[in-house]
């Protein structure tokens, strides 16, 4: 299926997902944007949100370009910049930007039919056919956390040299010898990582009307967006186990938010992006916490929602109760 990527002499076996595909985020979002505009939505491009108004315990609006936009609901969907934006409402998001190496080969190949992407989970390496060239990425390196004040206005950083050079060099060995390449373009892409490898989707903190759609990959985007829309409009999301995505900072053990422990968990996550970390409290822990919240901090009798492992935390409707 992908002779340029798979070394048949070393290949013992593999799994093909024939229904897999490639999502063109630019095309999809452009179509969705047009539909939203036809339904009355307005978009303000290149406008930085500099403030989130909180009135009492609820969101009041956002400030962007010096203008206050009143809003009942605000969704933070700002990628690696999400924690800084959440801080505008004094809320924390347990998300860490990390650096990730990806390299492109020379653009010299025929652009005819593309081969499937290939992943080598045991090496934490993946490769892609971009049509005119190959690309290769690896997670098998010491984790490189990027602090908020190092972030520029693009989700990219400077190539860190030896750390990524040697990781890419090692990763290249998974390819058949005749298709290994000298990188013609190096990308240090920065993406959002969480301690348990799951996105942050749902209500943020105790500010009613404040939501997060963070640490999402393109792969998750459509399902997460639908589930969040359900939540905002008071429908129970049909996505199974949606509650596991709750952005609550305490969904990971408290130690996981300390700088040292966060680094350790990031190390594990970045090396094994498909593995699930055992950092989450058990369902009982979460139910207890949510019960406490709903009861204004008092221990509560178990409610239907709390006893349901799929139940999700919803902001009470404005002026209503939990
Ligand atoms: C090399 C590499 C390979 C990857 N491969 C895959 C893959 O195979 N599959 C996959 O699913 N994902 C992959 N990803 C991850 C994926 O690209 C990201 O998870 C995804 O693009 C994040 O989308 P986002 O919309 O959350 O964030 P972004 O696309 O970063 O969008 C956030 C937006 O918020 C804006 N913003 C920030 N702050 C403010 C503010 N104050 N006011 C207004 N706007 C603001 C930013 O300008 C930006 O436009 C890869 C990433 C890298 C780097």
Q: How does this structure look, described?
A:
There is one protein chain. This protein is α+β, with helices and mostly antiparallel strands. The chain folds into two domains: 44-95 and 196-307, 3-Layer(bba) Sandwich (FAD/NAD(P)-binding domain), CATH 3.50.50; 96-193, D-Amino Acid Oxidase, subunit A, domain 2 (D-Amino Acid Oxidase, Chain A, domain 2, 2-Layer Sandwich), CATH 3.30.9. Helix content is 23%, strand content 20%. The protein has seven helices and twelve strands. It has helices at 25-38, 82-87, 162-172, 218-232, 259-271, 283-294, 304-307, and strands spanning 49-55, 58-64, 67-70, 74-76, 96-104, 118-120, 125-129, 134-138, 156-157, 185-193, 200-203, 210-214. The strands form three sheets. Strands 6-7-8-5-10-9 form a six-stranded antiparallel beta sheet, covered by helices on one side. It has a three-stranded antiparallel beta sheet with strand order 1-2-3, with no helix packed on it. Flavin-adenine dinucleotide binds at residues 48-49, 77-79, 81, 85, 100, 102, 137, 155, 187, 189, 191, 216-219. The site of flavin-adenine dinucleotide (FAD) has 18 residues, from strand 5, strand 10 and helix 4.
Summarize the structure in short.
By secondary structure, this protein is α+β, with helices and mostly antiparallel strands. It is built from seven helices and twelve strands. The chain has two domains: about 160 residues, 3-Layer(bba) Sandwich (FAD/NAD(P)-binding domain); about 100 residues, D-Amino Acid Oxidase, Chain A, domain 2, CATH 3.30.9.
């Amino acid at each position: 299926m992908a002779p340029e990527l798979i070394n048949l002499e070393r290949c013992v076996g593999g799994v093909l997902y024939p229904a897999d595909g490639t999502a063109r985020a630019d095309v999809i979002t452009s179509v969705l944007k047009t539909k939203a505009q036809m339904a009355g939505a307005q978009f303000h491009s290149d406008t930085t949100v500099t403030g989130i108004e909180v009135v009492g315990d609820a969101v009041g609006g956002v400030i962007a370009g010096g203008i206050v936009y009143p809003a009942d609901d605000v969704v933070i969907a700002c990628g690696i910049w999400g924690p800084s934006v959440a801080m505008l409402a004094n809320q924390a998001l347990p998300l860490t930007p990390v650096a990730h190496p990806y390299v492109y080969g020379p653009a010299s190949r025929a652009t005819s039919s593309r081969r499937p992407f290939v992943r080598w989970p045991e090496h934490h390496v993946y490769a892609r056919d971009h049509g005119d060239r190959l690309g290769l990425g690896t997670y098998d390196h010491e984790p490189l956390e990027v602090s908020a004040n190092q972030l520029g206005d693009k989700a990219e950083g400077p190539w860190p040299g030896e750390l990524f050079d040697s990781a890419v060099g090692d990763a290249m060995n998974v390819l058949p010898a005749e298709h290994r390449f000298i990188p013609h373009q190096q990308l240090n892409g920065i993406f959002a990582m969480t301690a348990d490898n799951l996105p942050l989707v749902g209500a943020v903190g105790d500010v009613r009307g404040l939501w997060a759609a963070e640490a999402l990959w393109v792969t998750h985007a459509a399902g997460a967006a639908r589930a969040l829309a359900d939540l905002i409009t008071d429908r129970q999301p049909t996505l199974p186990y949606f509650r596991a995505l709750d952005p609550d900072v305490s969904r990971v053990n408290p130690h996981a938010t300390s700088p040292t422990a966060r680094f350790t968990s990031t190390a594990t996550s970045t090396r094994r992006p498909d593995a699930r970390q055992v950092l989450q409290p058990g369902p009982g822990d979460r139910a207890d916490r949510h019960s406490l919240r709903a009861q204004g901090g008092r221990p509560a009798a178990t409610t239907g929602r709390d006893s349901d492992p799929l139940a999700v935390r919803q902001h009470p409707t404005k002026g209503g109760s939990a």
